[in-house]
Amino acid sequence: MLDLDKEEEILILAIESSCDETAASVVRNGREALSNVIYSQIALHTVYGGVVPEIASRKHIEKINQVIEQALAEAGKKLEEITAIAVTCGPGLVGALLVGVSAAKAVSFASGLPLIGVHHIEGHISANYIENKDLEPPFLCLVVSGGHSHLVLVKDYGEYEIIGRTRDDAAGEAFDKVARAIGLGYPGGPKIDKVSKEGDPESVHFPRAKVAGAAYDFSFSGLKSAVLNYLNSCEMKGEKVNTANVAASFQKAVIDVLVEHSIHGAKQYGCDKLAIAGGVASNSALRAALERECQKNGIRFYHPSPALCTDNAAMIGAAGYFEYKRGVRHGFDLNAVPNLRLGEHIGQA
Ligand code: KG4
Ligand code: ZN
Q1: Nearest bound ligand to the CA of residue 308
Q2: What distance in Å separates the CA atoms of residue 142 and residue 152, rounded to the nearest whole number?
């Protein structure tokens, strides 16, 4: 366990730019977000039906300085009061990541403050520490975002073991693709979440995929194809598609698998705490289902509020604090690593 002195004040200025959110935050002792500024590019990318990497990078360049200044101002802190700079260095879109990493290096060079590169998924997991002051490892965390679906055993701060992962599409990716197919547009997750409330989740039966020999792995591409086949067959038969029913049935198929794997994993690994993280963790039906199943199985359920589930910099500040306490420091050769693996060590200063 880390020696976490509650009396000292460690302030992390955190930067996140791995996808389509330009974000900065000041976090105190890993658990308190003094500011959490997010400039979302969603409206810009909506016309293209998804994130356009080149546009994302350009917009990050335009916004990053302003977002960092705003994060300091809203926290009521000057750069001289900050202890260290944390930045997402991977995984993500390489051009987008580079903007945040370069900005963090520049601030670190100019101020002399230590620089800490943070893994984006470690950030998502650490979002749980901000609103759950009592949450400490070990626990199991279901990480479900646009690029990842992982079941992660958090053994200690900064120590992870991935016990399950997706073999194809990430959960959020499946939400986005199915939303596009049923005409809801981008970003798909929140739209399916909303329209599903009007639909019957039992109306269409979609498959719940299992991966042979890997109890905790996920596969969502077959489910996505099943939805497309269903839509095609309706069209061939001249039947009108009930969008809300298809959305609700698809969502239920995803949630059933996520919940079953999470509860099974928690029991098998002897975890009495389960947390969720990532954009899909803001899904209202998933949260309700996990709340119910955790209660039934005597597991404590932890979740960040929806704004801390999707990409933000407060989560990077929380993760950065624990990395700082572990003694992690990076040099100016810190680079953006688009396919960085969780737990992979990048060269330190
Ligand atoms: O964590 P995140 O903001 O970015 C990545 O690191 O990927 O996750 C974005 C993903 C998108 O696929 C989006 O559709 C999904 O999270 N998402 C949701 C909801 N809100 C966002 N999926 C289901 N229900 C939601 N309410
Ligand atoms: Zn993310």
Answers
A1: 1
A2: 6
